[in-house]
Amino acid sequence: MSRGGCARVAGAVQVLLVGVAGGSGSGKTTIARSIVESLPSHHVSAIEHDAYYKDQSHLSYDERTRTNYDHPDSLDNELFVEHLLQLKSGRAVERPRYDFSKHLREEATTRIEPNPVIVVEGILVLALEAIRNVLDVKLFVDTDPDIRLMRRIRRDIDQRGRTFAQIRQQYYESVRPMHMAFVEPSKRHADLIIPEGGHNRVAREMILAHLQKFVRDLPTPPATPLLDE
Hints:
- 36% of the residues lie in helices and 21% in strands.
- It is an alpha/beta fold.
- The chain has one domain (7-216): Rossmann fold.
- Strands 1, 2, 3, 6, 7 and 8 form a 6-stranded mixed β-sheet that branches.
- A hairpin with a 3-residue loop joins strand 1 (7-9) and strand 2 (13-22).
- Mean pLDDT is 88; it is low at 1-12.
């Protein structure tokens, strides 16, 4: 393995794992999306840590709503790391799908290809050593708490079918305490801290320029020889 943890894929292409962390509502999804949109589709993939919440189909809906989903133990981190290592070694993975309105893992999966740049997004991807050690580039999106909270309220109502009362209860019981315990301290592991997330044009353009250069510098696979008929 080369310096920086870039693995060879089929002897030709390097894989760079780019971790994007930050509090809920910080704008890390905006940063992750901007990376994906700035690169050719065959050169980039994205994988989200929150797709790996543990299956809780054995619990009732009420029991599932009381789970602390902001604690590392709520996630299948062993499977997540296994999938990151498989991607780094050039093998595609079947990423789980998660229904946030029902708090259940779905039966269907999503295939993630081992493209040269893999964006790894999640609030805890820098907090957990096993995940952090696999990443080649570590970014932390740092946004003020009031802005993060307003974004989370809008997202959870619009996209996840939550009521305001549910959001408020979850925020005080788990989101804020877990942010202070795990997410906020993890920014010391970042290679780059991005204030205000996707609105930070200078930081965003620096990151995109670095990754675009990485893709441009990839070795060209040898041409496949034509066979005589």
